[in-house]
Amino acid sequence: MQKFEISNVPIQVDEVTEKVTSRNAGAITVFIGTVREMTKGKKTLSLEYEAYPPMAIKMFEQIEAEMLEKWPETKLAITHRVGKLDISDIAVVIAVSSPHRKVAYEANEFAIDRIKQIVPIWKKEHWEDGTAWIGDQLENVPYPDGSPKEVPHD
After folding, report:
1. C-alpha pair distances (Å), 37 with each of 47, 58, 98, 125
2. What does pTM read for this prediction?
């Protein structure tokens, strides 16, 4: 069972959660990121995600290592979807287990923040009045033609 995945099919939340289930877990938090309709006052029709899977998985592993330094008793699983997603579709699921709930919440928030900072996943927004590659997940670096040219595609 792979803890970290890039998927082109709908994510099954229970499958991601099962990967962190443990007899020592007193808490499991699950973050489900979905496609929202309104973004910055614009109506979104759909999103399209692209990723460089080998590097994305390596970055998920780095996030896990960072998380274990802060919270050594946690377990982490992440699945991120790529391809075309419609409104309300699940884009990412992050599951964290821990002996204690506060740590599970904190570690889960840490994981989504780090995904947006370091994982090579790019988003194209389809609006009523056009489309645009948003760029990195923090929307700080635009990629008007898609993903950065120096990153290979599978």
Report:
1. 10, 31, 33, 11
2. 0.85
Residue-level pLDDT, tens digit, the chain, 154 residues? 899 999 999 999 999 999 999 999 999 999 999 999 998 888 999 999 999 999 999 999 999 999 999 999 999 999 999 999 999 999 999 999 999 999 999 999 999 999 999 999 999 888 888 767 766 655 565 555 555 555 444 4
The answer to whether the beta carbons of residues 34 and 107 sit under 8 Å apart is no
Six-digit token string for 112: 């989504």
Q: Transcribe 111-125 into DSSP letters.
A: HHHHHHHH--EEEEE
- 84/99 Cα distance (integer angstroms): 37
Instruction: List the end-to-end C-alpha distance of the chain, in Å, as a whole number.
Output: 22
Please check whether residue 91 is in contact with residue 8, taking contact to mean a CB–CB distance below 8 angstroms.
no
CA distance 103 to 92: 20
